[in-house]
Write a structure and sequence with these properties.
Blueprint: H1 2-16, E1 17-26, E2 32-41, E3 46-51, E4 61-65, E5 75-77, E6 83-90, E7 93-101, E8 108-112, E9 133-142, E10 148-157, H2 162-181
Parallel strand pairs: 6-8
Antiparallel strand pairs: 1-2, 1-4, 2-3, 4-5, 6-7, 9-10
Length: about 190
């Protein structure tokens, strides 16, 4: 019973951890060098570097990762002592890997992949509709007995156009212009 619980717990923990193999390719001799592994825990965003090589490499080499597509050679260096691996995770999957100069005690930093801004498809700054004017109209009707009855109705008027609102500013200057021009009698 205890053994089955331990096995079940171990498989759950192992399912959350991804191992990334790192290798170096010499720039001068094209020799492949096994550098180590990155153990990435996707749930708590923690990582650990497990080096395979302890001795220093004399020539410059290119670092690559076998388990991440498109990262065959992503960083050139000749020393890994002051480097930090930054692993970006998107939807529980390792998206890409970078290396940066750092004297941090943690050799591996795990981050969520930054999300690009999404467009606002429902903007709140849409043009506002013109307010509908409600006009009260009083009319008189006669009933069957011949009495006059006052009837009040509210009528919605559609919004006025620019010319309907400002015609009083346009027509008087035009009339004055026509009067002052006069007739051309030659």
């Amino acid at each position: 019973m205890k053994l089955s619980i331990i096995l079940m717990f171990t498989t759950l923990v192992m399912a959350e951890v991804q191992r990334i193999s790192l290798y170096g390719t010499g720039l001068s001799d094209k020799e492949h060098i096994e550098l180590g592994h990155l153990e990435i825990n996707k749930n708590n965003l923690k990582g650990m570097y497990l080096p395979c090589r302890i001795d220093s490499i004399d020539s410059e080499f290119c670092i690559g990762a076998k388990d991440i597509p498109g990262s065959e050679c992503f960083y050139k260096t000749n020393d890994l002592s002051n480097k930090q691996f930054v692993v970006y995770i998107d939807n529980g999957k390792v998206d890409y890997l970078t290396i940066r100069e750092s004297n941090d005690k943690h050799k591996v930093l795990v981050k969520e992949t930054p999300k690009a801004p999404q467009p606002n498809l429902n903007p709140s700054n849409k043009p506002k509709k013109a307010p509908v004017e409600v006009k009260t109209v009083k009319t008189f009707k006669t009933d069957e007995n011949g009495n006059k009855i006052e009837v009040t109705q509210e009528i919605e008027e559609p919004p006025k156009s620019w010319i309907q609102k400002n015609w009083t500013y346009i027509v008087p200057p035009l009339l004055i212009l026509f009067v002052l021009m006069g007739d051309d009698k030659k």
